[in-house]
Specification:
With 261 residues, this protein is of the alpha/beta class. It has one domain (6-228): Rossmann fold, CATH 3.40.50. The chain has helices at residues 6-17, 68-75, 94-100, 116-129, 141-156, 175-180, 227-244, 248-253, and strands at 35-40, 46-52, 58-63, 80-85, 88-93, 103-104, 114-115, 133-139, 161-167, 173-174, 187-192, 207-208, 212-217, 220-223. The strands form 4 sheets. The protein has an 8-stranded mixed beta sheet, sandwiched between helices. A two-stranded antiparallel sheet has the order 4-5. Helix 5 (141-156) links the parallel strand 8 and strand 9 (161-167). Helix 3 crosses helix 5 (141-156). 33% of the residues are buried. This is Lipase. Residues 60-203 form the Fungal lipase-type domain.
């Protein structure tokens, strides 16, 4: 498995942030070099954004996470359902399969109303013909949909998925999904401290994560930390936080705050 480089991580994280309407304007310059297509829902909210440059091989496909009560209610529908992928199938979270089937509106260049999976596939096809490869990224439920869509696309077009990067993502599928998922060596699941969404759905040993976990905790990156150990380390850090704020490294970390003083 290749490493996820710092500049890639930072760019993907900002692009995920930009999928939400309340993003600070200071991040907008990140998008300026790219051509883009947006897929929107019936409320005219962007659900998926495609970004690419003519002289680069990578197309970045960004999936937005949950917005509003309706989305969160869908996330709560945690019972498993079968997802058919070509001649195979596996069981996934019902709420995330629902998002794959959710009707989206394209921009004026891509045709009529279709499900997310159908529409995105048709939009990616011209870029595929140009020799592009695709990185699927997303935050929260958008990360779960990125996994499902990436696996589907890899089955349709082997070796055309460059990588999958998710942030704060809940588990997307059952053990059957974990066993059949094709992109373990290209998938990075980024978790931050005690992000409780990354422990969901709350059904132990039924829903499973895939790929490589990168856990950001106490100014360090841990790889593939077991769930119970991660939970204990987070709680211990939280309980000791009043003491750790006294450490000199905390003062060094904040040295840049004095640049304007």
């Amino acid at each position: 498995m290749k490493k996820l480089k710092r500049y890639q991580y930072e760019r993907y994280a900002i692009l995920c942030q930009l999928s939400y309407p309340d993003t600070p304007s200071i991040y907008q310059d990140v998008i300026s070099p790219f051509k883009q297509i947006q897929l929107t829902d019936k409320y005219n909210r962007m659900s998926v954004r495609l970004l690419w440059q003519d002289d680069k091989k990578e197309v970045i496909v960004v999936f937005r996470g949950s917005l509003g009560l309706r989305d969160w209610l869908g996330n709560c529908c945690i019972f498993p359902t079968k997802l058919n992928v070509l001649n195979d199938s596996y069981y996934v979270h019902w709420g995330f399969k629902r998002l794959l089937d959710y009707p989206l509106y394209p921009d004026s260049t891509t045709g009529g109303l279709q499900s997310l999976r159908q529409l995105l596939y048709s939009v990616l096809t011209p870029l595929l013909r140009q020799g592009k490869r695709f990185s699927f990224i997303g935050h929260s439920s958008g990360g779960a949909v990125a996994l499902l869509m990436a696996d589907y696309y890899e089955r349709m077009h082997p070796k055309k998925v460059k990588r999958v990067v998710t942030f704060g993502q809940p588990a997307a599928g059952s053990l059957s999904f974990r066993r059949k998922y094709l992109l373990h060596n290209k998938t990075y699941r980024v978790c931050c401290d005690l992000d409780m969404i990354t422990y969901l759905p709350p059904i132990p040993y039924y829903f499973w994560h895939v790929g490589k976990m990168l856990w950001l905790h106490d100014d360090q990156i841990y790889e593939n930390t077991p769930t119970l150990k991660r939970l204990w380390m987070s709680l211990r850090s939280w309980l000791l936080r009043p003491i750790t704020y006294h450490y000199m490294r905390k003062y060094i970390r904040n040295k840049t705050l004095f640049d304007d003083h």
